[in-house]
Amino acid sequence: MENVLRPLIVIGGSVVLTLLIGWATDLLMRKADARHGETPLWGLLRRARIPYQLVICAALLRGSYDSAKVLEAHRIGIGKTLTLILIGAAAWLTIRIAAAVVETTYTRYSRAQRDPARVRRVRTQVTLITRVVTAVVGVVAVAAMLLTFPAMRAAGASLLASAGILGIVAGVAAQSTLSNMFAGLQIAFGDMVRIGDTVVVDGEWGTVEEITLTFLTVRTWDERRITMPVSYFTSKPFENWSRGGAQMTGIVYWHLDHSAPMEAMRQQLRDILRDCPAWDGRACDLTVTDSTPNTMQVRALVTAKDADDIWTVRVTVRERMLRWLSDHHPYALPRVNTADAALPQGVNGHRPSLDGDGPRRAHDTPRADR
Question: Which pTM does this prediction carry?
Fold first, then answer.
């Protein structure tokens, strides 16, 4: 009877005690979350209740398993397994707690800061810090698991002795990976590009959606994702439209006839922009920037508060101006002139010859009447 009750009391008591401690801790965090609604810390810490209970249960079983006297022939193996579970659960719990603290700090900063650029910069840094912490904790946990085996401890001396050679070999082999990792840290803390920035890379316009230690993802306007190594942004030039403020100036071009009514077009541009909610009212201008034998190039300058609005303003101005010209000034649109040329008068009052044989005589018939 004692051989049956002892395992039930030890193992069952550990499980029941784990559930009671987990329930009590979760209840306290729920009350704290309801009382302090201004911070999401307690709500985020509740996500760690599973690794928290796993740590408690593994610790209780590891400490009391010898008293249960169950499967004594496999006592060493079961003890090693419980130790590995304890180390893994502790690493999981540490990562969850660190993520909760970092996310709470970012949330408080974003609420207090009104500058979107600074908020995006802190968000980028917080994301990369969380990934670095996760990687470091994971490596330490794996190392602690390996050190629980005596064979690994014996091999540790030889590994440390050859650490210099292995480091050189690993550095050469992982040169591109290491350069990307350092580039990721440089981007995070050098404020070169942030999550949410509008960028143009390799002729593609999009928004930075994700930044990791090794790669960066840009979401284009047509919902495509471009993934590239972060070292690209530290070694090649790129356009960052969100750098130094989101306000932008856009350009709209038309190719029109030389007789286009410029003053009326300027007035119409102002009327179009007043009816366009995306225009921020900072500036508008209409000028002739170039001319050809058949047309002239007209340029309109418009402004908006960000990249999305400047696109809306440009397409609205282009469409409505062309429609207005077509309805009220169709002669201003470019056209191909197929009429006969009006030739200048010759010295003797007659038109010059069209075939290169000199001036026409008075009795010659014009080419158009032949």
Answer: 0.47
Which residue, 127, 150, 146, is CA-closest to 138?
Answer: 146
Task: Using alpha carbons, select from 234, 205, 230 the residue that is nearest to residue 219.
Answer: 205
Q: Which long-range contacts (CB under 8 A, 24 or more apart) does 240-245 make?
A: 240/192, 240/193, 240/197, 240/198, 240/199, 241/197, 241/198, 241/199, 241/200, 241/307, 242/117, 242/120, 242/194, 242/196, 242/197, 242/198, 242/199, 242/306, 242/307, 243/197, 245/117
Choose among 278, 282, 277, 253: nearest CA to 265. Answer: 253
Q: How many CA atoms lie within 13 A of 139 on its CB side?
A: 5
Amino acid (one-letter) located at 311: W
- pLDDT, one tens digit per residue, over 162-179 is 545 545 444 444 455 556
Q: Cα(205)–Cα(240) distance, rounded to whole angstroms?
A: 10
DSSP 8-state assignment for residue 70: -
Q: One-letter amino acid identity for 345? A: Q
Question: Across-strand partners of 291?
Answer: 296
Give the per-residue pLDDT at 157.
47
